[in-house]
Amino acid sequence: MQSKRCAELASGALWPMDRDQMRDRDPWKLRDRAISQAWVWPLLIGTLLYVQSTTLTIAFLLWHIWKVMASYFPGARLIKTADLDPAGRYIFVSHPHGVIAISDWLAFATEALGFSKLFPGLDLRCATLASNFWVPGLREYILSHGMCGVGRDTLARVLTGKPGRAVVLVVGGASEALLAAEGTYDLVLRNRKGFVRLALQTGASLVPVLSYGETDTFHTYIPPPCSRAAAVMKVLKQVFGFSTPLCWGTGLFGGWGMLALQVPLTVVVGAPIQVDKVSSPTEAEVAALHKTYTEALQKLWDDTVDKYGKGVKRPLAIVQ
Asked: Which of 24, 113, 143, 263 is a plausible cystine mate for 78, CB 3.0–4.6 Å?
């Protein structure tokens, strides 16, 4: 009996599968097959993320924590001075940058101040530095809030999409952040004309925005222009593309720390400046529209500073 069983095993009669099936289940062949089908997973995951992207973005914008954050700043609010046609395209140009642009985050990157109720039908994107998309985790976080890169090609793609598209630009950037001081509104705008050229090329209307209280969110120290501290901050800005002033706020339990100060924030959105589309604008056309925008921004300041500009120490000034 034993010799008969050995013969059956040798012939494969007692195996649950034949030799061809065993070869198909060879671990190396299974590995090769799995590798050959690996491309399916990124495609599947990408499809799921695309389908869920709108839902995820809305969820992050409506996240209750942003309402809590807004309540930290007494009376934080978003003020509309004119209606915006949801069939148009818009570039919101926000001033000033402040230390970390808290007002813009609350007003435009989230629904903390009720942007979609004041301006229904607009598909808004806040633009940020491309370097923010290089950091794993941070990239996914800012994308979940519907943000986009500040590159010209990216902004042009956003603005040439469906009607109602809009972007938010804080054009003063890092240079303006270094000028942030309590009660002051010193802007870097004189030579910032890229947003004007973009408006002409896309036909998007320019919308001036003033954030009262933004420069009061932190105490700052602005070193003298020729000091060593100023030189270090300039180098940091050149190397990393951004820099923050020497600043401090309040501590978690009082005293000083890095929490923002509890100051009123009021974001005022001005009337849109209609722009005719010009595929290849000339320098004269860019300069003319830049002048028109600057005058509109000054008028918005003159009309609203007495009502919303608490603690203003000196008038709006374009210093660079």
From this structure: 113
Q: Residue 96 is which amino acid?
A: P
Find tokens 């099936």 and name the residue: 21
- The answer to whether 129 and 150 have CB atoms below 8 angstroms apart is yes
Which residue ranges of the chain lie beneath pLDDT 70?
Answer: 1-63, 236-244
Measured CA to CA, the distance from residue 196 to residue 200 in angstroms comes to 6
- Can you give the pLDDT at residue 14? 47
Distance CA 205, CA 119 (A): 15
pLDDT value at residue 285 = 94
Q: What is the pLDDT of residue 32?
A: 52
Query: Distance between terminal CA atoms of the chain?
Result: 101
Structure confidence at residue 21 (pLDDT)? 47
Contact of 222 with 178, CB cutoff 8 Å: yes
d(CA 40, CA 34): 10
